[in-house]
Amino acid sequence: MITVNADMGEALGIHSFGNDLELLPLVDTINVACGFHSGDPTTMRQTINAAREHGVTIGAHPGLPDLVGFGRREMKLDKSEVRDLVQYQVGALVGFLDAAGGSLHHIKPHGALYGMLARDEDLMDALCDVALHYDVPVLGLPGTAHERTAHRRGVPFVAEFYADLSYGDDGIVVVERHGKQRTPDELADRLRAAVTTGSVTTTTGNNLPVRVESVCIHSDLPAAPANARIARDIISEILRTQP
User: pTM score, two decimals?
Assistant: First the structure.
């Protein structure tokens, strides 16, 4: 089964940057910001409560300590620093989950941290330490240090696909300071090709092998709810036509 996931809880006080309430009926699982790139305690609590009302599973979305850059600017960090910042953020979310009677479903790094861990097995080891502590899977990019390290460490791995982001030839998504908006047809064509042919066209025009176990929808894009509906329709369409 292919799931649909979305990053949520990316708000600070009265400032909100997503389409969380519109997306919750359309997704299977969410990745909640834990305070470093975005998110605050009240938003975490409210996001968890809303997700539980919709029967959606809840994962942690730890990022770099960079509110101004929304966690999309890389930092020089060593393994212990990555482990500590991930543990800190996941622990905060787990505290709210415990209070709500919920449980942690997975961990998925955010933004520039996501890319750093996709390239560096040593840094990804740090995230796996935390995943093993909580006995949860990680979401990430197949064929990168995300998957290689998770398999080596015995951490369950869920392969993500991004229909709304570009891919480099190394299999890593291109994280930009400001998200781009694809047309509905572009998004649908990319997702359909990824699921049916197992490939996506990179920024240089090459075909990159991909595996789609979960489709990520970025909640901060204006068309996020429409994108989620497209993903749902395509997944259902493909399941109907499979023998």
Answer: 0.94
